[in-house]
Known about the structure:
By secondary structure, this protein is mainly β. It has no helices and 22 strands. The protein has strands at 14-18, 23-29, 35-42, 46-47, 49-54, 60-67, 70-71, 73-78, 84-91, 94-102, 108-114, 120-126, 132-137, 145-147, 153-154, 164-171, 179-187, 193-198, 201-202, 205-212, 219-227, 233-242. The strands form 3 sheets. Strands 1, 2, 3, 4, 5, 6, 7, 8, 9, 10, 11, 12 and 13 form a 13-stranded antiparallel beta sheet that branches. It has a 5-stranded antiparallel beta sheet with strand order 15-14-16-20-19, with no helix packed on it. Strands 18-17-21-22 form a 4-stranded antiparallel beta sheet, with no helix packed on it.
Amino acid sequence: MKIRYPIIFVSLFLVFSCSQEKEKLVVTKYKNGNTKTEIYYKNDSIKHGLSKTYYMDGSILAEEHFADGLQNGWSLFYDDEKNLVYKLFFKNGAEYGNRYFYYRSGSLEAYNCYDIRGENFYILKLDSIGNIEQEEGLVFSPNILLLDSNGKELENFTTKNLEGEYSASIAVIEHPFKKVKLVFGKLNQLGQMENSKRLEIKENTASLTFQVDNQESKEFLIVGTLENDKGETVLEDSLVLKF
């Protein structure tokens, strides 16, 4: 099984315009008349919407989504026998979150997860009958996007003389068959978590806001756990934010 990247013999541009949307579909053709690509553009040059690439025989090779020129959403790639080989997610032009690889049978071969820096922080590999061959990494990435109330990014979590409201965006795995939990709370002087709350995870992201008072130093704790089908914790990670 392999992906064959087609050779362009002839490019023929067919343009379909939508005056209200100011978008157009550009279609390129092979010498045999079959479609090679279908790409939507906005304002003539900016990719926007679903783009498709085909093999020379007309079967689908790739489906990719764009928004204002940047890849956003799922990209899917197929082999020359129409089997889904892998799919990955993009956010504002960069790979983010889930990436899945598949066997020809359609069963999952591997799962990876990427954070906002493009780093792979979790790896899962399965054999053809679903047994785990490799599993390593973190429940959530330590590369957390931390912003102040003005939307300015803070580059580290040990920051003095700050106060006000802050927000954080955390990349979290979405495991194919295990349960993921993420909890956030304040640490007291005994190192115990207070006022903890479970964070909602959506599209590999957990978001939160919290308040910092410069009258006293504060520490916040994030704990991520991975549970099997028996409710047993099989992986746990934690990170402390210090102010």
